[in-house]
From TrEMBL:
<dbReference type="InterPro" id="IPR029759">
    <property type="entry name" value="GPX_AS"/>
</dbReference>
<dbReference type="GO" id="GO:0004601">
    <property type="term" value="F:peroxidase activity"/>
</dbReference>
<feature type="active site">
    <location>
        <position position="35"/>
    </location>
</feature>
<comment type="similarity">
    <text>Belongs to the glutathione peroxidase family.</text>
</comment>
<dbReference type="InterPro" id="IPR000889">
    <property type="entry name" value="Glutathione_peroxidase"/>
</dbReference>
<dbReference type="InterPro" id="IPR029760">
    <property type="entry name" value="GPX_CS"/>
</dbReference>
<dbReference type="Pfam" id="PF00255">
    <property type="entry name" value="GSHPx"/>
</dbReference>
<dbReference type="InterPro" id="IPR036249">
    <property type="entry name" value="Thioredoxin-like_sf"/>
</dbReference>
<keyword id="KW-0575">Peroxidase</keyword>
<protein>
    <recommendedName>
        <fullName>Glutathione peroxidase</fullName>
    </recommendedName>
</protein>
<dbReference type="GO" id="GO:0034599">
    <property type="term" value="P:cellular response to oxidative stress"/>
</dbReference>
<keyword id="KW-0560">Oxidoreductase</keyword>
Length: 158
């Protein structure tokens, strides 16, 4: 199954796939609004603004699996991100990113990250996956990896 075939729901509740992002470089991130790492939104937005015209898309997937740090509704999450971090990159509905009910997209991302760039299971909010224009997972970055630290890898794929 291609990464573009996974069904997801937008933060507005519309069902879609990742097909609209085919031929783009993707940075897929599990996010949370009440986390010590929430300021990563600022860096993610900066990367998106800098490189979107060259083909980068950041995709944010809120998850409430880590210490209940994303308890809000999709509308609350969207408003928080827009007001506090001026987020304009695509956000999606809350999902589980690990465990028994993990969304198939995140199972795929973890399972298809090549060695030595596979950091293991999703350990916390803001784990980042870099995907090339052909839909291949290139690298997995730990939650604590600052978005700016990924810039050189993004530029290489663009």
């Amino acid at each position: 199954m291609s990464i573009y075939d996974f069904e997801v729901n937008t933060i507005e509740g519309e069902q879609t796939t990742l097909q609209p992002y085919k031929d783009k470089v993707l940075l897929i991130v599990n996010t949370a609004s009440g986390c010590g790492l929430t300021p990563h939104y600022k860096g993610l937005q900066a990367l998106y603004e800098t490189y979107k015209d060259q083909g980068l898309v950041v995709l944010g997937f809120p998850s409430n699996q880590f210490a209940g740090q994303e308890p809000g509704t999709e509308a609350e999450i969207k408003e928080f991100c827009e007001l506090n971090y001026q987020v304009t990159f695509p956000l999606f509905a809350k999902i589980d990113v690990k465990g028994e009910h993990a969304h198939p997209l995140f199972v795929h991302l973890v399972d298809h990250t090549p060695a030595p760039y596979h950091t293991g299971d999703i350990e916390w909010n803001f784990v980042k996956f870099l995907v090339d224009r052909e839909g291949n997972v290139i690298k997995q970055y730990s939650a604590r990896t600052e978005p700016e630290a990924i810039e050189a890898d993004i530029k290489d794929l663009l």
